[in-house]
Amino acid sequence: MDNLQMLKNANLKATPQRLAILKVLKKHIHPNIDELYEEIKKENPSISLATVYKNLDTLVESKIAIEINTPNLKTKYDIYEHPHAHVVCQKCGFTQDLMDDVSNIVNHQSQLEQKIGKNIDNFSVVATIDGCQNCS
Amino acid sequence: MDNLQMLKNANLKATPQRLAILKVLKKHIHPNIDELYEEIKKENPSISLATVYKNLDTLVESKIAIEINTPNLKTKYDIYEHPHAHVVCQKCGFTQDLMDDVSNIVNHQSQLEQKIGKNIDNFSVVATIDGCQNCS
DNA sequence: CTATTTGCAAACCCTTTGCAAAAAT
DNA sequence: ATTTTTGCAAAGGGTTTGCAAATAG
Question: Distance in angstroms, CA of B17 to C1' of C4?
């Protein structure tokens, strides 16, 4: 969906700052606040970090974005398009998408389902990834 | 295993502070630093928070304890006895153990295994838990 | 005796907050 | 015109660090 429309649907004012955040969220994979901020400043040098913080909170509240909490690292963000799960390396924070079919495998196990429910929004697996491509 | 022995095996000096931390880790489920600190102070009023921080790092490095990273909340700790996984509520941080057989279900899926490896130490699933007993 | 650990206080992040000015509708 | 949002600077909170004194082995 169009960024401007996403904001309108959520009753949020379409400020240049918000549009810039959405643009970067869609172009970069799982950025954290610093990566977002640096990227946005290229086109919008006067944006303040506090504004980025505030807007990320707002976007998450409105379910336009989601947070991916990572161990010891800054929270990462993703656009909430169709819900999908993430696998996060415990050591280095490297984050990968879990395809829908894979998360369904996890999700359809009855015992697991009891614990985590059927809701895979924001679902993330933090694990020691043998041979993580990023840290080993 | 005996707390004193665990420390000796890791070449760590058996200070009263460390023994106190281990004692509390074994008695309380998934405490965060504050819960640990408050509990330890009951018997060891002069311990400093910095010491608790330092020792938790040390214990995790020595694989005597593990960290459970939780969204928006303080890191929780657990004794590393036999490895097991955790399910953490995304909303409230409520943390449950995942029994070995359940984590094996997750673990033995070949696609998932490719991503997360066979190592279930420290494995945690952060998810929105429908009807979480703690937050709903 | 030597190396490690402790406790304190200060430093150091990162994130949030208050508020007046600016901008969106 | 009204309400929301921005940007700044300050405050806040959690964690880490440096160092001298204390302690474990």
Answer: 13
Per residue in B78-88, pLDDT (tens digit) is 999 877 788 88
Cα–Cα distance between A99 and A116 in angstroms, integer? 17
Residue B114, SS3?
helix
Q: What is the DSSP string of B38-75?
A: HHHHHH-TT--HHHHHHHHHHHHHTTSEEEE--TTSPP
CA B93, B97, B102, B107: dihedral to nearest 10 degrees?
70
Strand ranges across the sheet with B85-89: A95-98, A85-89, A124-127, B124-127, B85-89, B95-98
> How many of the other CB atoms lie within 10 Å of CB of B46?
8
3-state secondary structure of A66: strand
Confidence band (pLDDT; 50, 70, 90) for A125? confident
For residue A19 the two structure tokens come to 């549009």
pTM score of the predicted model:
0.89
Gap between the Cα atoms of B111 and B109, Å rounded: 6
d(CA A4, nearest CA chain B) in Å: 28
- In chain A, residues with a C-beta closer than 8 Å to the C-beta of B71 are 67, 69
pLDDT attached to residue B108: 63
Tokens of A48: 């303040």
Low-confidence ranges of chain B (pLDDT < 70): 100-122, 136
